[in-house]
Amino acid sequence: MTQRYATIITDDDGRDIVSTIGEFEHAPPPPRLGWIEPAAPGVLIGMVRDAAGGFGFPQSGIGGQAIGLVLARLKAQASVAKRAGAAKPAATAKPKRAKRARKKTARSKKPAGSAQKAGRAAGDAVAKATVDG
Would you tell me how many other CB atoms lie within 10 Å of the CB of residue 17? Predict the structure, then answer.
């Protein structure tokens, strides 16, 4: 029969936190960090030991009302910054740069295959001279 064991560590605040969980058929392995104790089936990694000795996820330290106040302050700062950005006169704005015109490249008026034909004809003449000679 397998038994679930949890590795418990202590964080900076002095709370006991579940670090790892494993299932073993015999005795648990020796702990590398913290200590090991049997864990109930509902215990998950990251849970904190509560006052009753059980485990649960920690409650957030900031209430919903405090988060609302922080968000309201951030929105107010953003709107003030937006108004300050719109108050700049247009005279200080830099004009947009015009796009540069691309240089046109001159193309050869000779057909593409004419150089190959001339080279092939010269090569054939040299080959014929070496075979006849």
Answer: 19
Scored b (16 or more CB within 10 A) or e, 100-119 reads: eeeeeeeeeeeeeeeeeeee
pTM (2 d.p.): 0.42
Burial class (CB in 10 A: 0-12, 13-18, 19+), 6: buried
Instruction: Supply 40's token pair.
Output: 């109930």
Burial 23-50 (b: 16+ CB within 10 A, else e): eeeeebeeeeebebeebeeebeeebbbe
Q: Rounded to whole angstroms, how far apart are CA atoms 42 and 7? A: 15
Which residues does the chain have with pLDDT short of 70? 60-69, 84-95, 107-133
